Amino acid sequence: MAFAGVLSDADVKAALDGCAAADSFDYKKFFKASGLAAKTADDVKKAFKIIDQDNSGFIEEEELKLFLQNFSAGARALTDKETKAFLSAGDSDGDGKIGIDEFAALVKA
């Protein structure tokens, strides 16, 4: 698991189970259930680097769509509606992507 040492498998499974149905993803609930919301700034930064698959320094829409699969390979992709809502919530400067500071604010929201 990509988040070994940062998040517990049980917490990640609970977070994924909580949004298994299409259009049920809520980032606040997910970050809380997975334990990420309670982690240090360094751990949140590690999570960002895992989710930023192309190492661009930003999480783009395509990476958000596959967000849950970073936590478990068998997890579903986010729906277009979920992806756009997630991006909208995190993209505070309106550039169409989520930077590290925006991600940290989203996790701690």
Automatic annotation (TrEMBL):
The keyword Repeat applies. Signal peptide: none annotated. Pfam families: EF-hand_7. One of its GO terms (cellular component) is cytoplasm. Keywords: Calcium, Metal-binding, Muscle protein, Repeat. GO terms for molecular function: calcium ion binding. CDD domains: EFh_parvalbumin_beta. Ca(2+) 1 binds at D52, D54, S56, F58, E63. Ca(2+) 2 binds at D91, D93, D95, K97, E102. Residues 39-74, 78-109 form the EF-hand domain. In muscle, parvalbumin is thought to be involved in relaxation after contraction. It binds two calcium ions. Belongs to the parvalbumin family. This is Parvalbumin. It comes from Oreochromis niloticus. The lineage of its organism: Eukaryota, Metazoa, Chordata, Craniata, Vertebrata.
